[in-house]
Amino acid sequence: MEPATDVPESLPRSVDRDPVNDYDRFAAAYAAENENSLVNAYYERPAMLALAGDVAGRRILDAGCGSGPLSAALRDRGAVVTGIDVSAGMPALAGRRLGDDVDLHVADLSEHLPFGDGAFDDVVASLVLHYLEDWAPALAELRRVLRPGGRLIASVEHPFVAYTFQEPRPDYFATTSYTFTWTFDGQSAPMRFWRKPLHAMTEAFTAAGFRLTAIDEPQPDPAARELFPDAFHDLATRATFLFFVLEVPLSTDGSDD
Fold this sequence. Notes:
Blueprint lengths: L26 H10 L1 H15 L6 E5 L5 H8 L3 E6 L3 H10 L4 E4 L13 E7 L9 H10 E12 L1 H7 L10 E9 L2 E9 L2 H10 L3 E6 L7 H4 L1 H8 L4 E7 L10
Parallel strand pairs: 1-2, 1-4, 2-3, 4-5
Antiparallel strand pairs: 5-9, 6-7, 8-9
């Protein structure tokens, strides 16, 4: 599918937009690219769904839902899904895909979320946290809206990626920003991300009250080998994203008793 060239006029736009990471400006083009791309459709989303497992009947918050492809897949597997995104344009596109099946909100993960304590069984945060310099406010809110025993399933840019492509190499042990430009069908979009060392990620999860249960570095869907013969080997043999499964302890003291 070829990316759209611009965002439809009917899409709302977020307030106080930063010219960097301005998803509203290229929402439709990004959504079209994301739909069937090797990295998203045949690597990141299948990995998230595999880690989520059987979600039938589970209340799931898709934090950073974008145009809704992961929300749709979870809904189709029987989950009761709510989606949030800081970009107003993305939930508007998601609403066209999902109709009334998914409750959608414009919300900033770093601020108070419009949900009660323990409202969800799971939160999925697909390629979201690496946009934040400080994970603490977002993780505190995600921890609050999860019930005891609930899970946070998150994917982020692998910390080795930004470290190895930057010259000169940054301090691996520091939290550092990096930028590059995405291009969709002639549209250029400046993007800024934050790289953390692995220990800082796990410490942030622990400080927020989560228990780490899995770290995953999955392989792409084998079906992509024939669809993307030139790129498949490269994706299958290098670090790209890092995946975490975290649980909220059942008791306030952090034990399972």
